[in-house]
Amino acid sequence: MKIIVLGGGGKLVERPPQSGKQTLVLPEPFGELKFIHSQHSEVATVPFAKGIKDKGIKEFTWRLHLADAEHEGLKSLVKAGFGDFDEYNDPATSMSASIGAQNLGRKEIPPGVWGPEECFDIKHFFAEMKKSHFRITMQTEEEI
């Protein structure tokens, strides 16, 4: 199985799983962590979304960090033949889906198939996440 990333030329390309290793130093309590490329839907939606595509994004990847023990355990499951998972759920994913469903029910977003970045008001979305005790911080970097 290959993963898809938006390569440097602005086109979707395949990469091997667990490629693109990168070490980042995050605030405590996390510290230094290793990340790898991982398949994720945002790679195929964000760079092409209305309002974002015209900004000229040429490269877009998704990297994931797993604790060493968890990563080794998952690799063992894949080696044992459990590599095709139809469903995966985590609290952030289910919370995002819940907020989206509520917004759709209140007709705050248009019906249809959209990338979240095309139809969510980000300030409202983060406010909803905070109500569910998610801690959200933002750091920006500007090249001079």
How would you describe this structure to a colleague?
The protein has 144 residues and is α+β, with helices and mostly antiparallel strands. It folds into two domains: 1-85, no CATH class; 89-134, no CATH class. Helix content is 31%, strand content 15%. It has helices at residues 42-45, 68-79, 91-105, 116-119, 122-131; strands spanning 3-6, 12-15, 22-26, 31-37, 63-64. Strands 3-4-5 form a three-stranded antiparallel β-sheet, with no helix packed on it. It has a two-stranded antiparallel ribbon with strand order 1-2. A hairpin with a 4-residue loop joins strand 3 and strand 4. The protein is globular, with a radius of gyration of 17 Å.
Category from helices, strands and their pairing? alpha+beta
Q: How many domain modules? A: 2
- Give the low-confidence spans: none
Taken in chain order, the helices and strands follow as EEEEHEHHHH
**Mean of all residue-level pLDDT scores:** 77
Brief summary:
The chain is of the alpha+beta class. It has helices spanning about 40-45, 70-80, 90-105, 115-120, 120-130, and strands spanning about 5, 10-15, 20-25, 30-35, 65. The longest helix has 15 residues, at about 90-105.
